[in-house]
Amino acid sequence: MSTRTLQRKLADVDLAYSDLLDTVRFERSSSLLRDTDTKIIDVSFASGYSDPAHFSRAFRRISGVSPRQFREQSRLRKK
């Protein structure tokens, strides 16, 4: 299926491709930050970002905190 076809099908259910992509990337990155000691730069690449700065901005926009703060808060909750 082409990207454009997927975009049309998502639009049919009132969902934007970019929103779906953001959600999938956020779920992947938050899982890696919460459950592993992977470096944040490597988390950004593993989550589909080619620029770690863009990853940090996107993560903060969605979660309200930086990736580092998210990791620290997640670790405090585990204790």
TrEMBL record:
Residue span(s) of domain HTH araC/xylS-type = 1-73
The UniProt entry, under InterPro entries, shows: Homeodomain-like_sf (IPR009057), HTH_AraC (IPR018060), Tscrpt_reg_AraC-type_HTH (IPR020449)
Q: Which GO CC terms are listed, alphabetically?
A: cytosol
* Taxonomy, superkingdom: Bacteria
Q: Which Gene3D superfamilies does the record cross-reference, listed alphabetically? A: Homeodomain-like (1.10.10.60)
User: What SUPFAM superfamilies would the database entry show?
Assistant: Homeodomain-like
Q: Which UniProt keywords apply?
A: DNA-binding, Plasmid, Transcription, Transcription regulation
> Cross-referenced PROSITE patterns, in alphabetical order?
HTH_ARAC_FAMILY_2
GO terms, molecular function: DNA-binding transcription factor activity; transcription cis-regulatory region binding
UniProt cross-references to PANTHER family, sorted A to Z:
HTH-TYPE TRANSCRIPTIONAL REGULATOR GADX, HTH-TYPE TRANSCRIPTIONAL REGULATOR VQSM
Return the protein name. Helix-turn-helix domain protein
